[in-house]
Amino acid sequence: MSNNVAEYAALCEALEFLLKRKLEVSPIEVRSDSRLVVYQMRGEWRFRKGLYHEKYLEAKRLIAHFSNLRFRWIPREQNEEADGLSREAYRRAS
Questions:
Q1: Is the four-CA dihedral 33, 38, 6, 29 of positive or negative sign?
Q2: pLDDT per residue as tens digits for the range 60-79
Q3: Please, is 82 exposed, middle or buried when counting C-beta atoms within 10 Å of its C-beta (0-12, 13-18, 19+)?
Q4: Cα dist. 54→22, 39, 49, 60, 67 in Å?
Q5: What sign for the dihedral angle of Cα 53, 56, 47, 39?
Q6: Which CATH superfamily, name and number, covers 3-93?
Q7: What is the rounded distance in angstroms from the CA atom of residue 91 to the CA atom of residue 81?
Q8: For all residues of the chain together, what is the average pLDDT?
Q9: Which residue among 18, 37, 72, 74 is least packed, with the fewest CB closer than 10 Å?
């Protein structure tokens, strides 16, 4: 699995969580340290190729359900708590 697959898989899980709670019209800001995910979901970068193609398409399908969804890139060094949680999850999965 690549880091891009993991980033998109996490995004899809979060969007499905929000959909199950019927939050499609609520203002939602997705914050991520993945510049690729944020810029692609904003439409600023195009998808070219990669192992994450299926998850990218799933995320695009899911975001279409939301009317007030924004994406914001947060550099990893400015988000130590999330970085620590992701490292812990990775250690547990290994």
A1: positive
A2: 999 999 999 999 999 888 87
A3: middle
A4: 24, 17, 11, 10, 23
A5: negative
A6: Ribonuclease H-like superfamily/Ribonuclease H (3.30.420.10)
A7: 15
A8: 90
A9: 72
